[in-house]
Amino acid sequence: MTTKAERTTAFIIETVAPIFNKHGYIGTSMSDLTEATGLTKGALYGNFENKEALALSAFEYNSKMLLEAIDDQLNTPGTALDKIFALTDFYKRYDEFTTEIGGCPILNVGVDAKHNNALLSAATKETSKIIEGKIALVFENGVNNREISIPVTPLQFAKQLYTMLQGAIAMATITGDRKYLINTVAYLNQLIRKEIKK
Q1: pTM for this structure?
Q2: Which 8-state DSSP code applies to residue 114?
Q3: What is the spatial distance between Cα 71 and Cα 134, in angstroms, rounded to a whole number?
């Protein structure tokens, strides 16, 4: 059973996570946070040491949701290719997944924090590496189980795949055109079929 303080902390994080994700660390004011939560500045700082700690908790909350969604795809029953295609299919609808959390936390926070907040920047970089590692593990297991063979190391293939997906996310976000996601995923699926041998 959670305490009242724990419930308040959870409420604050859930409420402010989309705001930080949309407006960035610098662009989010304390009045934005007090207005959204209905709490005073003192109440917010009673639960978090400072704005930076709150922003980091908000990013961790959003990235945890993203990592869980990616795990769901990569734990799809079947072969390594089944799992990878489940992941690319998820990214085809990624804009729908990220609507409630204010956009892609990797893209939004990563770009925003690069020159403004070393802690947030490091957290985004770490989450990106975790995602690449999860994808690489699927490729590695596929190679080890003799389901597939790939022309480069599993990590290299995973990094390239993830880079292309993030590029599509960036373009879809900038232009407001989800065809960047749909077309990139269609191209990636063809590329995967061509490059990966069964």
Answers
A1: 0.93
A2: T
A3: 8
Longest dimension (CA), the chain: 60
Q: Tell how far CA 113 is from the center of its chain.
A: 15
- On the question of pLDDT at 1 being above 70, the answer is no
* Cα-Cα-Cα-Cα dihedral sign, residues 157, 163, 169, 171: negative
Distance from chain centroid for Cα 37: 24
Per DSSP, the three-state class of 197 is: strand
* CA 142 vs CA 81, 91, 147, 153: distances in Å: 8, 21, 5, 12
User: What is the helix (H) or strand (E) element at residue 160, kind and residue range?
Assistant: helix 154-175
Helices and strands per DSSP (H, E), number in the chain: 10, 0
Q: What is the pLDDT of residues 54-79, one digit of tens each?
A: 999 999 999 999 999 999 999 999 99
In Å, what is the CA distance from 67 to each residue of 31, 50, 84, 129?
A: 30, 26, 15, 11
Check if the beta carbon of residue 172 is closer than 8 Å to that of residue 180: yes
Give SS3 for 50. coil
